[in-house]
């Protein structure tokens, strides 16, 4: 499987998340305050809530329902009640196009 075009960079707003679904895999695509695009699993591991409805602050995406913040770089929760990470996906920017392969996750330390 190869990366698929999911959005245009110009469709993203800074410090906001957009939900996309590729091959039935929900992904939150985020443009952080540094202008970097991230893609993480869109489902909170604590409450089965869409993370893209949450709040972006710095390099985190916070679940609106229970307040768990997830690192956009590692997918790890930074506070309770979530304790399981979400997947992090490689993002490729080609001109104005954002491409993601939902079957390839980043190796994070």
Overall description:
The protein has 109 residues and is mainly β. It has a single domain (4-104), classed as Rieske [2Fe-2S] iron-sulphur domain (Rieske Iron-sulfur Protein, 3-layer Sandwich), CATH 2.102.10. 0% of the residues lie in helices and 45% in strands. The chain is built from no helices and nine strands. The strands form two sheets. A six-stranded antiparallel beta sheet has the order 1-9-8-4-3-2, with no helix packed on it. Strand 5 (55-57) and strand 6 form a beta hairpin.
Listing every helix as H and every strand as E from the N terminus to the C terminus, the arrangement reads EEEEEEEEE
How many domains make up the coordinates?
Answer: 1
Q: What coarse outline follows from CA principal-axis ratios?
A: globular
Percentage of residues in helical conformation: under 10%
User: What's the CATH superfamily, by name?
Assistant: Rieske [2Fe-2S] iron-sulphur domain
CATH class: Mainly Beta
Uncertain stretches of 5 or more adjacent residues: none
Protein name: Non-heme iron oxygenase ferredoxin subunit
Domain Rieske: 4-100
Keywords: 2Fe-2S, Iron, Iron-sulfur, Metal-binding
Pfam family, one: Rieske
